[in-house]
Q: What sequence folds into this?
């Protein structure tokens, strides 16, 4: 798991929104970036390609929503297809998939414990899930380097 030079961008694909998180320049911590409203595959990919270029991203980590059994359902297949299309759209940038089981659940629980209102939670859950995906990826990479 050796990322390309540059920052690491994590993507949490929701049905209505795409949550984004970006690593610090050293690749140690994840920060929320923004949440994009989904407008269609072509425009979603264009917006992400612009974000990758603007943030000097070397690796993109796409959350892979496996079922609890470890098998892949429809959402995982959609994430794989999206990652493949994104990789073709941004040549020279590594695109990886990362098991994101329970990140949205964890994000929801974190917001509930922080007393975030339901309407607000819907707006930010994908961004927080992207942070959890990225931090898990960064932590695993750091652990592997030890």
A:
């Amino acid at each position: 798991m050796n990322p390309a030079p540059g920052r690491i961008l994590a993507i949490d694909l929701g049905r209505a929104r795409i949550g984004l998180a970006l690593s610090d320049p050293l690749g140690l911590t994840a920060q929320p970036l923004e949440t994009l409203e989904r407008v269609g595959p072509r425009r979603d990919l264009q917006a992400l390609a612009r974000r990758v270029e603007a943030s000097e991203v070397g690796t993109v980590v796409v959350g892979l929503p496996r079922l609890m059994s470890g098998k892949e359902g429809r959402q995982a297949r959609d994430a794989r297809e999206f990652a493949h299309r994104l990789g073709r759209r941004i040549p020279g940038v590594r695109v990886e998939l990362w098991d994101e089981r329970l990140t949205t659940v964890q994000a929801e629980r974190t917001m509930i414990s922080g007393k975030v209102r339901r309407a607000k939670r819907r707006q930010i859950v994908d961004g927080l899930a992207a942070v959890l995906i990225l931090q898990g990826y960064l932590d695993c990479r750091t652990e592997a380097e030890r």
